[in-house]
Specification:
By secondary structure, the chain is α+β, with helices and mostly antiparallel strands. It contains four helices and four strands. The chain has one domain: Ribosomal Protein S5, domain 2. Strand 3, helix 3 and strand 4 form a beta-alpha-beta unit.
Length: 128
């Protein structure tokens, strides 16, 4: 079996993992998207020691071409800012349609801000 690429290790793939994140966290909002995050339980077997990010881009956001463009843009931003997250956390990003017209610099800053918010929250929880 081939070894997964570093980008593939960052991805949240299984339906059960998505459901666990949805049920164990609250929906939070930023300007261009909503997001969920949950620390991964200790007993969970995972190939990834660090963070994993999943994307939900529904049919409401447009045709397949538009949805795929949104996902490509988001994956690139996640790849640039994933090192911000140091805890074993699962994150789900749910973008709005405005992400399509958003400049790449704004999208980068948005993802960076979301990841900083998550990291700050997890650091505070670790201290308690």
């Amino acid at each position: 079996m081939p070894t997964p690429t570093p980008n593939a290790l960052l991805r949240l793939r299984k339906h059960a993992d998505y459901q666990r994140v949805y049920t164990s966290s609250r929906k939070q909002f930023s300007k261009q998207m909503s997001f969920f995050f949950s620390i991964r339980p200790e007993g969970r077997r995972s190939d990834t020691p660090g963070p994993r990010v999943g994307l939900t881009v529904g049919k409401v956001l447009g045709k397949a071409v538009d949805r795929n463009r949104i996902k490509r843009r988001l994956r690139e931003c996640v790849r640039h800012h994933a090192q911000t997250l140091t805890h074993p956390v699962d994150v789900i990003l749910h973008p709005r349609r405005t992400v399509l017209e958003l400049e790449s610099g704004h999208l980068e800053r948005e993802i960076a801000q979301i990841f900083r918010t998550i990291q700050t929250t997890l650091n505070k929880a670790a201290l308690q």
